[in-house]
Design goal:
Length: 109
């Protein structure tokens, strides 16, 4: 999952890119087009709003014969993966699913 260049500069790395490096045939298919509030600090509705128009197909990325698996660092509400998958599907990619390194859970009690 791409970060906005300003966010990547702020962090110094992209966690999702580090996770993706463990897989073969990694391709950069998306770019981040907007800078938004950190998803972890937003409500579910806020996450969806933050991600409206947040991604675009990367220059030169073209659909192939094989389906795409998205890679992200953490799955919270699914809004990031859904937004990214929608852009790729609209561009003609077949999105088979997503892999994340972690899953956020609601605090108990």
């Amino acid at each position: 999952m791409p970060l906005h260049p300003d966010r990547e500069w702020e962090r110094g790395f992209n966690q999702a890119a580090l996770v993706a490096a463990a897989f073969p045939d990694v391709q950069k298919l998306l770019v981040r087009t907007t800078f938004s509030e950190k998803q972890s600090k937003s409500s579910r509705e806020g996450r969806e709003e933050n991600l409206a128009l947040a991604f675009a197909k990367a220059p030169g990325a073209e659909p192939g014969r094989r389906p795409v698996v998205l890679v992200d660092d953490i799955y919270t509400s699914g809004a990031t993966i859904q937004a990214a998958a929608a852009v790729l599907r609209e561009a003609g990619f077949r999105v088979a699913g997503a892999v994340t390194a972690a899953r956020a859970v609601r605090k108990m009690g």
